[in-house]
Amino acid sequence: MTHDDPEVRDLVHRLVAALARNPPPVATLLDITVDGVRCRCSRAGPEEDDPASLSPRELEITRMVAAGRTNQAIADRLGISTWTVATHLRRIFAKLGVNSRAAMVARLLAGDAPSHVRATHIDVSPEDATAPERADTVS
User: Fold this and answer.
1) Do 67 and 109 belong together in one domain?
2) Residue 138, domain member (yes or no)
3) Is 48 contained in some domain?
4) Is residue 47 assigned to a domain?
5) CA angle at 78 for the pair 72 and 81, rounded to the nearest 5°
6) How would DSSP label each residue in the chain?
7) Do 74 and 88 meet the contact criterion of CB atoms below 8 Å apart?
C-alpha cells in the first residue's frame, strides 16, 4: 500500500473523523507504534517560518489597538518607537488584507481572517482597557 492507495486514504479519513469526535486538548492527537511503524497525527497549524502568521508582538499590538490605544500610547507602553508600531501595523494589515485599524480588529474578532493568521484570543486585558485613547491614528 502507498499513500495514494484508496484504502489508506479511507483509513486516514476515518481516523481523522474519529479523532475529531473526541479530540484531546493537545497538538498531538495520536502517537502510536504499530508493527514497528510510528503513526502520528497532529493538529495542522502555521509553520514556524510562515511569514503570514501573526507574531506574539503583532497579537499584542492588535489587542492594544482593539482597546483604543494610539500608536504613541502603544509605543510608550512597549518601549518602541511609533515608527516600529506603524511598521507592525502595516505588516498586520498586509497579512489580513485590510487597510485600517477598524477593519483589522473587525476581521480578527469576526473570525473570518485567513486560518493561518486567525487570532483566537484577541481579548483585551483590564490593563489594556484602562484609559482608552482615540483610535484614529492609522499608521
Assistant:
1) yes
2) no
3) no
4) no
5) 50
6) --TT-HHHHHHHHHHHHHHHHS--SSSEEEEEEETTEEEEEE-----TT-TTSPPHHHHHHHHHHHTT--HHHHHHHHT--HHHHHHHHHHHHHHHT--SHHHHHHHHHHT-S-GGG--S--PPPHHHHSS--------
7) no
Contact 99, 93 (CB under 8 A): yes
C-alpha cell at 25: 486538548
Cβ atoms of residues 58 and 90 within 8 Å: no
31: Cα separation from own chain's centroid:
25
> Residue 33's domain spans which residues?
6-42
7 or 79, which is more confident: 79
Q: Do residues 65 and 124 share a domain?
A: yes
- The chain-wide mean pLDDT, for the chain, equals 75
C-alpha cell of residue 64: 492594544
The amino acid at residue 101 is: R
Domain match, 38 and 60 both: no
pLDDT tens-digit series, residues 75-90? 999 999 999 999 999 9
